[in-house]
Known about the structure:
Mean pLDDT: 93
Shape: globular
Distance between the termini: 51 Å
Order of helices and strands: HHHHHHHEEEEEEEHEEHHHH
Largest sheet: 4 strands, antiparallel
Number of strands: 9
Number of helices: 12
Strand content: 5-15%
Low-confidence stretches: none
Amino acid sequence: MTTTSDSYSEELDAVFPAGAGFPAGTMEPEYILNESLDPDPASVFRDVSREDRAYWDRARTFVQDEVLPVIAGYWERAEYPLHLVKRLGELDLLRDGINIDGFPAMSKTAAGLVMMELSRGDGSIGTVVAVQGGLALRSVAECGSAEQQAHWLPALARAEEYGAFALTEPAHGSDSVGLETTATAVEGGYVLNGEKKWIGNGSIGGLTVVWARGDHGQVHGYLVPQDSPGYTATTIEGKLSLRAIWQAHIRLENVFVPAENVLPGARSFKDTARVLLATRLGVAWSAVGHATACYETAVQYAAQRRQFGRPLAASQIVQERLARMHSELATMQLMVMQMTKLDEEGVLAPAQAALAKFTCTRTARGIASNARDLLGGNGILLANRVARHFADIEGIHTYEGTETVQALIIGRSITGISAFA
């Protein structure tokens, strides 16, 4: 499939054909900026196991062969490449470290490496895994009944069904614990009323895990097929970030949910927070992927772009900027690997997950800004990769808890005093 950016390059070739009498110095070369350089400044990934590396390599091949050739066009048109979601399921890259009967083991390290690699390709593709695997599938795996798990987990993992996680509301983002969607007990089940916003996969058909407040005030999870009467989802338009995945504004008007669709292990907001804890670390891994893409692009552009009679890479200031990105990337890699090790051991604390997300998304913003500037005017072109990541980092910097919320979680662990209202 031809992307918008590819079409533009072809048009330029037609208007300005090579060898048409133009001085060679006026012709700009075609930059090759998508090669994988495997930056690992501190040898953090040297000891990755063979099993984990197999997942990583599969994600790398998918990104290089199937994502990068087409994603700029989908991003520019704000279209959702559902065929790539299907491929994620076929390649067993959707599970986010959740082990399911009948599937090979997938460690949390493998899940992090996959998230990093997919986000290196595109933030929307990484977000697909965060939504379908990290949130929807994990909710069923951790809070669902045996019957619910047997029915939904394999289908979600293979992308035979799509999954959404509906927690955020129009008036409750950072204070999601204050959600106001209600679940009223009726004969045979519950009736849901309320609204949700920024719900990835919420408008494409499939299953939505809706979090709502029951008659006694506690928060519970409900499995709601998107074709349920009273479930209305509108795809949010006008986004300047994560444009190749659709998020929805959902209205629930007297949506009946049978009793067998209630998640028995979701008894309070603490269970919701347990799901979010795991995905927070996944966002940190995603930030590493975005930063890696920006760093790789900057290195390759500096080698290929000539100014003042020499490559940019020959300039001292450019080498200093690349060294700075190199250092910052190493910091991020070290942090996610250490926090994932703690997660594998079952001792990762909420403040540590918050620290990883807080540090990595803000550091990725800095690397993206540096790389964007290093490319000059070419840095805003979709064909040159950085601008897309520059925009998408803004999305991941906000979701799963804003920087301010993460700072308050960290601050509470430092001082022992909660600054939350």
